[in-house]
Request: fold
Amino acid sequence: MLSMLHECQMTLPLVLTMWRRRVRRKICTPIHKATSSPPNTTASPEKTELNCYTCNDVGPTNKCLNFTNFQVAHALWRQSVRDWDDPVQIATCESPFNASCMVLTYNNEKGEVAHLSGCSDDETFGLDPNKSARYLPITKNLQKDNHTRCAWDDTDMICLTLCIGDSDEPCNGPTLAGNFISASGFLIVLCACVQIVNNAFLQVA
Reply:
């Protein structure tokens, strides 16, 4: 019995010493940053550039409210056609106006009366600086979450939407990635392409 107790007394310090070394090794071992994604996970796509719809128009029937115009712009952009003569364009934003894509609208009892879409620096939105206090609900604590926030300016309601998206697709308009363009939209795209070719031919001639 004494022999067994002696053996236990000799073994316990040894176990404690080994345990301390093990804990110390875990604490002091540096953590190396992983160089690859863990198995069974998908890395988020890296956003290389910011592309935004651009459109400026006024009136209750302004062209920025026409869905087909966005279809045409997206189709031409995906076909790498540049500088087409249509109300809606897709622009690659340049610094400092590459912080987000924006949509700014003016609305009254008749509906939307002015529309501005494009690239933004998250600071200047074309608002009257003398009325900055009125615009605090939309200019303070900006969120690029594609949610619309509005503020009142007398009888006008001014709404601002900011977004950055998660790919090279423009986020400040209809989501058209992977969608097929309608028959009418296809005809408009075809006519637009013919017009571009004709203009190029006339310039050469």
In short: The first strand starts at residue 51 and ends at 58.
